[in-house]
Backbone:
């Protein structure tokens, strides 16, 4: 059996607002019919080899640090981080370890993600 990544899913208080942030961050359009209950990017018209991003409203807020999170790569990390902050993300930390430089951020729902420089 071979597993492949089909989607990255975020629990959030407002699925449409969170999906709108990630759509802008990834330069991808929201799927038609997205609502504040459930929104998606790439679910209805999938791109082969590219996971869909799903956003589902849940009643409880995030309690602790994410145990899993997306790691994104950018050719110009500083410029990309500044763009994401302009979209509403907040910088949590900067790291330079293991020969990799990366920035930890939080999206508008406090979900953590990282942006690393291209190697």
Residues:
């Amino acid at each position: 059996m071979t597993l492949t990544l089909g989607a990255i899913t975020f629990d959030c208080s407002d699925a449409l607002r969170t999906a709108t942030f990630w759509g802008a961050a990834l330069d991808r359009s929201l799927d038609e019919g997205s609502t504040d209950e459930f929104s998606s990017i790439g679910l209805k018209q999938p791109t082969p080899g590219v996971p869909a991003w799903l956003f589902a409203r849940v009643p409880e807020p995030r309690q602790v640090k994410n145990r899993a999170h997306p790691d994104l790569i950018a050719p110009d990390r500083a410029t990309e981080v500044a763009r994401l902050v302009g979209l509403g993300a907040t910088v949590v930390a900067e790291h330079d370890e293991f020969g990799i430089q990366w920035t930890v951020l939080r999206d508008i729902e406090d979900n953590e993600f990282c942006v690393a420089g291209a190697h």
About this structure: DSSP finds two helices and seven strands in the chain.
